[in-house]
Design goal:
By secondary structure, this protein is an alpha/beta fold. Helices cover about 40% and strands about 30% of the residues. Strand 24 and strand 25 form a beta hairpin. About 30% of the residues are buried. The mean pLDDT is about 85.
């Protein structure tokens, strides 16, 4: 067989191509292997900045070197890699700066920004790792750039990481490194952090690192408070001072003024004191030393000073000194009391006095008859059970008209006083004394005047001897059934009354229940915050607003995202200075809106109609039928929701009886609705007895309002 040359030549072509491909693949494998081993060798030698590029076994180095000697070192390291034939340098030097600067800034909003020059990529990576460690969970922004400088790099890195570590103890601040000089400034997170950072900067800086500036401030306290209590047990401090040095000055002054009394200092370091604060404290200490016992509480620019002086002269001097020497930007509330002498009856006129010493009662002066004396003693014993009554009166004619009414007017308020006296001279009634109950100190004058009427002229001198409150706790709740309840502490009766009036205006047509207690405090800015809370809660379908000190919280359900956003915007701009707001506002779902519409319809039907029961029974009266049939129709038009039926009674009868009666009345209503087509599985009942009144049980009208049935529509 003869071989065709053409076919033979054609067979060589694929063989040649395969050989070429094999050569190329081999070369590529060689370059990849050399690149991998070269990069590893450069990294181990400290030249990770260098980037090796291979053409066969020939290498070219690119990158930016931080030192003039580094390119030669990188080439030397590369040439020692087995398999490298030729190595050449095409690298560049990073920029050189004479004034080498670096900074780290913590903004306080969860972001840390690194800026300035670093000597190498290794240092950059080390600083980023340190920042992520020290500021865990925060965003670290890298704005650093490579630059050459003439300094100790190890010392520089130690100084930068030291600056980052201490910066992490600040709420917000900045650390700067100019060559090897460190500066740091900002507000510490806590008092402990403040002391720790200052001690570290003074005593634990890395070797070679100087401190060019330190401006670390304590955390800001809002409000800035300080107090001292002087008792037989000694002195106790609480609150804040601006520095350890200031704390020591105050302590030294106290030891000088109060001799060998024991001192318990529980103050901490904080910033935020008003101008003239230390002077106000020193004046308060000087005057407290004049009293037997006492308390001083300073809250920002408000000083509450109270205590017992040895006599009236000392009390007057203390009051005058406080007014003259405490800086004028401070407001002073003082209650300086002193022992008063025993009652001295007027030398003329028809006089009768009742003296409450706190442990017993003395009757002195004149009474018109034995019967009047006996009735008066019985009245005193009824108001002061268990107290001894010392009768020193004498029967004498000439009592003025209305004598009994005026005596009883004075007696009626004495139980509200810790100590006190009531003296009736002819038609002039004088009541004086002291009480720890601020509400009583405010109410007694008007109560006595009202009890006396036009029968006699009244004068009062009531001293409040308790501690004025600085942080009030208050809450307002708007329930799904429209009922609004306001509870907690109010600073005075005028503020309480004004708040109730505002609530009745805002929630017109709804029941507003007042469970507030008057405690005695400054009305502003608390009243403004409470007023704003009532207004914004009205924009929620149901909700709650509370104030604890300067912490303002609002929660509830809004109809839309826009309403929720509007409320947050108002709180951010209109709350009084110093208040911090937090909200737990949710947006109503379609189902919740539908339930709310049903709630409104049921509330309107209940308000228009009548639901009555037989006296002291759970039997519905016939006039209730139409209202309940209307309610059944509304319930059936809202088939997707459960309905809670709530029974309430007035305060007549025992708690146990009222609880049973409210339960049975709620069940009677549920039975009627079931009989009129409402699925009983949708109905739940609960009785509250007399625990949730909406009116005063002292009147028949109020009791009638409290005897009620309420409906609450709930999403399944």
């Amino acid at each position: 067989m003869r071989c065709n040359p053409t076919y033979w030549l054609l067979g060589l072509v694929p063989i040649a191509m395969l050989s070429w491909v094999a050569v190329q693949l081999e070369q590529t494998n060689i370059e990849l292997d050399l690149s991998r081993r070269a990069e590893d060798a450069l990294r181990r030698s400290g030249f990770s900045w260098a980037n090796p590029h291979f053409a066969g076994r020939d290498a070219v180095v690119t990158g930016r070197a931080a030192d003039e000697r580094d390119p030669a070192g990188a080439l030397s390291s590369l040439r020692n890699v087995w398999g490298v034939r030729v190595a050449s340098d095409r690298s560049e030097l990073i920029d050189s700066v004479a004034d080498y600067r670096w900074s780290a800034t913590a903004s306080g909003d969860g972001r840390v920004d690194l800026q300035g020059e670093v000597p190498s990529e290794e240092v950059r990576e080390a600083l980023l790792a340190a920042a992520h460690r020290d500021f865990a969970g925060q965003t670290v922004s890298d704005g650093m750039r490579l630059a050459r400088g003439s300094f100790n790099r190890d010392a520089w890195l130690a100084g930068a990481t030291f600056g980052l570590k201490n910066l992490s103890e600040l709420k917000r601040g900045e650390a700067r490194l100019a060559v090897l000089d460190l500066s740091i400034a900002g507000e510490a997170r806590t008092s402990e952090a403040y002391r720790s950072v200052r001690a570290a900067l003074a005593e634990r800086r890395p070797a070679g690192i100087g401190l060019s500036q330190e401006n670390v401030t304590p955390p800001v306290a809002r409000p800035f408070i300080w107090s001292i209590k002087k008792s037989v047990a000694g002195l106790s401090f609480a609150g804040f001072t601006r520095s350890d040095e200031e704390r020591e000055r105050i302590g030294a002054r106290a030891k000088q003024l109060f001799g060998g009394m024991t001192v318990a200092d529980n103050t901490d370091i904080a910033d935020g004191a008003p101008e003239g604060w230390e002077k106000a404290v020193m004046v308060a200490l000087d005057q407290l030393a004049q009293l037997r016992t006492g308390d001083v509480a300073i809250r920002d620019r408000e000083m509450m000073f109270s205590g017992e002086a040895p006599n009236e002269q000392v009390a007057s001097t203390v009051k005058r000194t406080l007014k003259l020497q405490v800086p004028q930007n401070f407001r002073i509330l003082e209650q300086v009391r002193f022992p008063r002498p025993d009652v001295a009856l007027p030398s003329s006129g028809y006089v009768m006095g009742i003296v409450n010493s706190g442990t017993s009662l003395d009757l002195v002066g004149m009474v018109p008859s034995e019967a009047a004396r006996g009735a008066l003693i019985d009245a005193i014993k009824a108001r002061f059970p268990g107290r001894a009554v010392n009768d020193k009166t004498q029967v004498a004619p000439g009592a003025p008209d209305g004598w009994q009414q005026c005596v009883v007017a004075g007696l009626s308020s004495l139980p509200r006083l810790k100590k006190g006296k009531s003296v009736l001279t002819d038609r002039k009634l004088e009541l004086s004394g002291e009480t720890d109950d601020y509400a009583a100190s405010q109410a007694v004058p008007s109560d006595v005047k009202a009890a006396a009427g036009q029968t006699c002229e009244t004068t009062t001198d009531i001293a409040f001897t308790g501690q004025m409150k600085t942080d009030l706790t208050w809450k307002a709740i708007r329930e799904p059934n429209g009922m609004v309840t306001i509870a907690g502490e109010a600073p005075d009766d005028a503020s309480r009354q004004r708040l109730i009036e505002i609530a009745q205006q805002i929630y017109a047509g709804s029941s507003v229940t007042d469970n507030m207690k008057i405690v005695g405090a400054s009305s502003e800015p608390w009243s403004s915050a409470a007023h704003l809370g009532l207004e914004e809660m009205a924009r929620l379908k149901n909700g709650e607003v509370s104030i604890a000190g300067k912490e303002f919280v609002i929660k509830g359900a809004a109809e839309s995202d826009q309403v929720a956003s509007d409320i947050r915007s108002v709180l951010s701009t209109d709350l009084p200075p110093g208040f911090k707001s937090r909200d737990e506002i949710t947006v109503m779902s379609v189902e919740e809106k539908a339930a709310d519409s049903c709630q409104t319809l049921m509330r309107q039907a209940s308000a228009k109609g009548t639901i009555n029961f037989a006296r002291a029974k759970a039997d519905l009266t016939p006039d209730s039928s139409q209202t309940l049939r209307d309610l059944a129709q509304i319930a059936n038009e809202c088939p997707s929701f459960k309905i809670q039926i709530e029974g309430h009674t007035d305060a007549e009868g025992t708690d146990e009886r009222n609880q049973r009666l409210s339960d049975r009345r709620a069940r009677s209503v549920a039975d009627f609705l079931s009989e009129n087509g409402v699925d009983p599985r949708r109905l739940t009942t609960i009785g509250y007895g007399a625990t949730r009144p909406i009116a005063d049980n002292a009147s028949e009208e109020g009791r009638a309002k409290n005897r009620r049935i309420e409906f609450t529509v709930k999403v399944n």
